[in-house]
Write a structure and sequence with these properties.
Blueprint: H1 14-27, H2 31-58, H3 68-73
């Protein structure tokens, strides 16, 4: 059956392969599904790091803060 997902091939070290196999067996899921879930989790962590960096740049002394309601009131 065709899939709308993009296929990628990756080479992993033996220890990574073994861990993926163990997780797949534990969760009763295909290795590819486990790998995808781990990649998605890693991407969320990366996204959080970017947002944290942006927040740190904006968090400066003397900055005027506005409420959530004020921010969205005129949009």
């Amino acid at each position: 059956m065709p899939t709308s997902k993009k296929r990628i091939n990756i080479s992993v070290p033996k220890d990574t392969e073994e861990i993926l196999e163990l997780l797949a067996k534990r969760d009763k899921k295909p290795i590819a599904t486990v790998a995808l879930q781990l990649i998605e989790t890693a991407l969320e962590i990366e996204e959080d790091a970017v947002w944290a960096e942006i927040a740190d740049e904006r968090d400066q002394p003397g900055v005027k803060y506005i409420s959530h309601e004020e921010m969205w009131h005129d949009l």
